[in-house]
Amino acid sequence: MKMRPLHVTLFLLAAILIGRAAILQNNTPSRMDEYIHGHVRMPFQGRYLMVPVLRWAESSTLLQRGSELLKQSSRGPVDLMMQLVDVLCLIAMGFVAVRLRNDLSPPMVFPWLAPWLLLWIVLCGYVARYESRFYQPYDFVAALIFAIGILACVECRPLLLIGMVLIGSYNRETAICLLPIWLACNFDKSRWRVLSCAAITLAAWIAVRMQIHRWIPGPLLGFDQPWMTNLRMMLPHHLPQVLSVGGFLVIPLWLGRRMIHDKLLVRVWVGSLPFVMATLVFGWWNETRIFGELNVLFAVTAAIQFEQYLRENPDRARLPGSGA
Q1: What is the pTM assigned to this prediction?
Q2: Phi, psi of 133 (to 5 degrees)
Q3: The domain containing residue 154 runs over which residues?
């Protein structure tokens, strides 16, 4: 089942709005210039993929003219480039969400539901914030790469997975968290194929991170452990932002876990646990963007639970195959 042209058009318009707002409604990182020219401390400078893109944008006559034309909604050529990147990534994530939803059961009834839930989740995570109101140039790129990586795991496409980890490792070190998802989804398939792909993926990640370490002096990873700060995030005035992770859907998703009958989706979530745990340990909880890699998975899971609920309660809606 495909999305209707009207649904696609509205999704594209909403993606443009939210992608641009994710930049314009937040503050430019104070060290953006240092990041572009390679002077930020690790691990932030090690997220290198966007550096050549932003260096080009900085000197682009085309983007300079575009930012002058859109001066009411652009703070310069680099800012305009970030808006363009975020919009394109969000649009691509929407189509990945539809593809991933189609790969899982029950059969899809509302093709528009997963991408529209994705828009809501991104809106909550990157736009509607009152703390840590800044963006990072690699956030949406990381979310897109991780979403495609999850799709590769679900569809058992080793070359696509290796490619996503290889590219993603230049963007953010969390790309390696696709490896446990791959193993969880495909452990019952050809051992040689699964394990050789895992070994190549791990080797690619190590090679990229070591190459970046040669480019940029400093610790290879260099994470903080903000224990005390995160404990304070449980105070009432922080909770609205902390709970906005996943568009406020994390608790409902957990409560509705019995609505998930697709074992492959369960495996994806089991494989995602290392990423979740690492983010909880090393991330600042009020920076809701740190969970962005799971946005597509949140959206697809919520769509599946909603449709499954309606199927199990046909008196509440008339759905194809529901018997209503």
Answers
A1: 0.91
A2: -85, 75
A3: 5-316
The SS3 call for residue 93 is: helix
The reply to whether 136 falls in a domain is yes
Number of domains in the chain: 1
CA angle, residues 127, 130, 135, in degrees to nearest 5:
50
CA 267 to chain centre: 18
- Angle, CA of 146, 149 and 153, to the nearest 5°: 140
- Give tens-digit pLDDT for 16-57: 999 999 999 888 776 788 888 877 777 777 888 999 999 999
Give 267-324 pLDDT, tens digit per residue: 999 999 999 999 888 888 888 888 999 999 999 999 999 999 888 887 765 655 545 4
Residue 68 belongs to a domain: yes
The two structure tokens encoding residue 177: 């968290």
* Cα–Cα distance, 324 to 322 (Å, whole number): 5
Count of CB atoms situated within 10 Å of the CB of 288 = 24
DSSP 8-state secondary structure symbol assigned to residue 51: H
In this structure, how many other beta carbons lie within 10 angstroms of the beta carbon of residue 257? 12
Tell whether 321 is covered by a domain.
no
Computed on alpha carbons and rounded to an integer, the radius of gyration of the chain in Å comes to 20
In a domain, 178, yes or no: yes
